[in-house]
UniProtKB/TrEMBL annotation:
The organism of origin for this protein: Araneus ventricosus (Orbweaver spider)
Protein name in UniProt: Transposase Tc1-like domain-containing protein
Pfam families tied to this protein: HTH_Tnp_Tc3_2
GO biological process: DNA integration; DNA transposition
Organism domain of life: Eukaryota
Gene Ontology terms, MF aspect: DNA binding
Domain Transposase Tc1-like: 2-31
InterPro entries xrefs: RNaseH_sf, Transposase_Tc1-like
Length: 97
């Protein structure tokens, strides 16, 4: 049948009001041009990188009694092991790493 078990796709949790506001914003800005309005906008982005922790759902297939085999375990550190966040902005006139 082509069906597979998958984790659901993660999307922002938006209320009906959020969707209405996004649509209103898009309609108000649909005629903006790069030469006039968009050149005054600064864009930002943020990414998180984990050092030891896996953010996803990890599963293993094992038989009874195999729970301590190295292939069936996942090491962890106290308090998640730490990570780092990178953040930056850019615009037509600005670059700020």
């Amino acid at each position: 049948m082509g069906l597979c078990s998958r984790r659901p796709t993660r999307v922002p949790l938006l209320t009906k009001r959020h969707r209405q506001l996004r649509l209103q914003w898009a309609r108000e800005h649909r005629d903006w041009t790069v030469d006039d309005e968009w050149k005054r906008v600064a864009w930002s982005y943020e990414s998180r990188f984990l050092i030891h922790h896996v953010d996803g759902c990890v599963k293993v297939l094992r038989l009874p009694g195999e729970q301590l085999l190295p292939s069936c375990t996942a090491g962890h550190t106290q308090a998640g092991g730490g990570g780092i966040i990178f953040w930056g902005t850019f615009s037509r006139r600005l670059w700020d790493p």
